[in-house]
Amino acid sequence: MSPVRRTVFVLSMYEYEIGNGGLCQFFVNSSRELAPYVSECLEEVGAIEHKDLFDNFILDNSIDVNALDYFEIDDLDEYAEKAELYDFDSFDDAYMELPFLTDTIVEYIRENINEFYTNK
Questions:
Q1: pLDDT digits 0-9 by tens, 81-97
Q2: Per DSSP, which regions of the chain are E strands?
Q3: Which residues, other chains included, contact 26 with Cβ-Cβ below 8 Å and sequence gap of 6+?
Q4: pLDDT tens for each residue of 36-83
Q5: What is the pLDDT of residue 120?
Q6: Gap between the terminal Cα atoms of the chain
Q7: How far apart are CA 108 and CA 113, in angstroms?
Q8: Closest by CA position to 6, among listed 52, 41, 43
């Protein structure tokens, strides 16, 4: 996968999960495996407000994006437990106030269209 495709993939999954259920859902679902790349990908596309929000949440809550096994769950009760441990609602509310990340991703693809269709 080309670096441009990788960036688009990571940010698309991040955006879809947050739009569907918030940052907690992103961490709970298998998409959490992409968490170590979110910050660098946000920077790559120029989504600095999104990057700052993500980085500050991670830092303020001492979350290690390289070790999110803690967020593996088996049922809805465990999900509720995880959701209550961190202020995900504040993150999600702030995220929804930012410009649409999808627009930034589309612009990034346009600017890198040749690399997007390259496999290297």
A1: 888 889 999 999 999 99
A2: none
A3: 13, 14, 17, 18, 32, 35
A4: 999 999 999 999 999 999 999 999 999 999 998 888 888 888 888 888
A5: 65
A6: 6
A7: 8
A8: 41
Separation of alpha carbons 93 and 74, rounded Å:
26
**Residue whose tokens read 């496999």:** 119
Q: Are 80 and 89 in contact (CB under 8 A)?
A: no
Q: Are 39 and 48 in contact (CB under 8 A)?
A: no
Q: How far is CA 66 from CA 76, 102, 116, in A?
A: 24, 25, 26
For the record, the structure tokens of 61 come out as 């809550």
Query: Which of left, alpha, beta for 62 (phi over 0: left; psi -120 to 50: alpha)?
Result: left
- DSSP 8-state symbol, 119: -
Instruction: List the structure tokens of 72.
Output: 């593996």
For the chain, the maximum distance between any two Cα atoms, rounded to a whole number of angstroms, is 46
Rounded Cα distance, 29 and 48, in Å: 25
